[in-house]
Amino acid sequence: MKEANESSNVVNLSQRLDPSSGRGGDLLNAVRNISSRRLQQYIGNMFEHVDDALFDLAEKAENNAAQMHYFDGMREVRKRRPVIERGFLALVSRELNDFAGGNRAPSAGPNVGAPVGPVPGSVELSLVADNELEESLAITSMIGKNESRLSRDLFAVNQRLSVICGGTRIEDATNPIGPALLAQAFRQAMRELNADMRVKLIIYKLFDRYVMAALEELYQEVNAELMRAGVLPQLRHEVLRNTAGDAGAAAGAAAAAGEVPAPLAADDSEASAELLQTLRALFSARRGGHPAGVPGAMPQGPLPTANELIGALSVLQSQAAMVPMPMAAAVPSTSAVDVAEQVLHLKEQLLSQLGSLRGQRPGQIATIDEDTIDLVGMLFEFILEDRNLPPQMQVLLARLQIPYLKAAILDRKLFAHRQHPARRLLDGLADAAKSWSEESDRDGRLHDTIKAIVERLLQEFDDDMTIFDRLHAELAQFQDSNRRRAELAEQRVAESTRGREKLEQARRRAAREILNRIGDHVLPPLIHGVLSRAWANYLVLTILRKGEESNEFREALRFVDAFIASTKPVRTPEAKRDLRQLLPGIERALRKGLANVAFQEADIEKLLAQLHSYYRQQLGEVAPAPAQPTAEAAAPAPLPIPESIQPIAESVDELEDETASAEPAADTITPEVRDQLDLVKALKPGIWLEFSGQEEHFERAKLSWISPMSGRYLFVNRRGLKVGDYSPYELAMVMAEGRARVLASNALFDRAMDAIVDRLSNDEVRPGESP
């Protein structure tokens, strides 16, 4: 940190402003106004997303009870939102007022964060205690993560507030707009919400995503305003070789002297720290205790400094930026070979460039630096081998090796912190690239967006790490815009598929009911034609409109029974009486049913006239018609089917056998298909697969929906357009034949780190690498 030069327009660190003075009060008012305006915007934006989040969780709930928790939470949030918003903003305003008045919160945290304990002796004591603990852990985790992420901007705000508050030391925990006090204020406001703890934890996550994540903008505006007012305008928070970097440099010097490097602190999780220590140990074992550098080379002068490494990399980066990017549809083989060569030989190129800059090639480099160079090299080798990425995208992302090596040297936390901006950007690019295919990106928008981000990093990245956050925000905005359009298209595809399946299910139900009732009866062609065509359509529409449990459907089935009964031979007076009693009901039902399926009045009358003739013959009122050569010749002309019901106007006799598409018996399935079938049945909506066709054509598709009726799997591309649908057995067959494979769903960086650990554990040393 550099002190500002004293001048009439600059406030340096030795200055003290009285907050009650005009100047100090004006500056605090400016901070208060900026904070109030932005926080009101952030908290409002957060609540706009709560409904959607809870609704999505309700749809995916494992049971009805869990689903009701989320729906109840939605209703409670809608009702209590104004109170919670007002409460949060009022608490923040009170903190700012107390701060301006000199009533600072203690460093241990504000009173608003004190948990509200249960009533002594309450039977819910244990449950409340568990909920308080869970809530406290969520708040503590949120505060720690954001204080670390925002450390640079928050440090500057703390220092400048210290100046305008008379020199009182302001820390992260006592900053009225710091993550700690804001999170605790929101927790206090959430006491107004009477909802299940699962719902509250979801809201805390959204608060983290839409309020805490936006604090960087707030701090930058506050810092800019205070800088314009002359408060520490030259303040700098050094990033190069920061806390983690300083520790790394010390470890590197110790390693060069033959000492064991000290553990590198990780601010993300114990798992990240353990991973780093494992990597360090594996790199050390691979070297076998030899110093870092060129094998067999003698030391030549002092070890290169971080600034020398960054300078040499900047030269290589400017050269790489001059190489044109491949086109989206270009065959990537040649480009892939070129990029792979660059990835494998970057370390050698860097040493050569260092030699050019300092006049002699270094024989050694610090162990910490060589480990970083090798680790980044392995990361990008993994990218070039990662089948999760299309070849065209592998070539694009591999161009980022030099910027990422610079970022890793500038900030050692890149490999320790899952939320590091550079890491989030690479993971985001890989996630977007995973869904790419030529068919789904005909306009080239996704390819061009990723290409533009790669080009900007190559051309613009010097040592300002904020570029990763800016580019990640641009990528997220592009992804959100495309996701909304894709979700609409995907919803239409799912609804269309669901509609077709409901129609097919209704047709099969109608067919079964009619065929079961006909049984072994041999019906006259006229009666059979009415049941299998006109009345089958009426049954289908009744199922779709009213449901299978409706009175209308039961009445339609009673008509089928009566219609079939009316064809029985009439040999006694009692039988004639029964038939005459049936006929009025048959006619009324036919008129009603055929009108509902859009038959014209003239066609209905024509059919009824044919039936009248048939029944008069049944009753012996007219002489039977002369014998005809065949039954088909005696059949009346089929009635025309209205165009509006053509999609369901298929004869019952022509319906395919339901068993035709059934999956084979388990004992007839091959072991290969059975293994894939187990994998298929474990798939969840949202997982991506790659389907390969002829001539090396491939398509990336997401499992969008699993039909609850047929169990079929619906796949869509990144634009939400249908790629195909399969039964579980059909999909297992395709996968067993190698024409489809599941793509990994975890982040690129995590997969790469696991692969690197495996590679080092197996002691795999490639040509050109030091042992």
Descriptive notes:
Helix content is 60%, strand content 3%. The longest helix is centred in the middle third of the chain and has 53 residues, at 466-518. It folds into four domains: 22-228, no CATH class; 243-291 and 306-464 and 751-761, no CATH class; 510-655, no CATH class; 660-746, SH3 type barrels. It has helices at residues 22-59, 64-100, 125-149, 151-164, 179-189, 197-210, 215-228, 243-256, 270-287, 306-321, 333-358, 367-385, 391-398, 401-410, 421-434, 445-460, 466-518, 525-546, 551-565, 573-596, 601-619, 631-634, 671-681, 728-736, 748-761, and strands at residues 688-692, 698-706, 713-716, 722-726, 740-742. The protein has a five-stranded antiparallel sheet, with helices on both faces. The chain is elongated and about 120 Å long. It is mainly alpha-helical and 771 residues long. Strand 3 (713-716) and strand 4 form a beta hairpin. The chain starts with 21 loop residues before the first helix and ends in a 10-residue tail after the last helix.
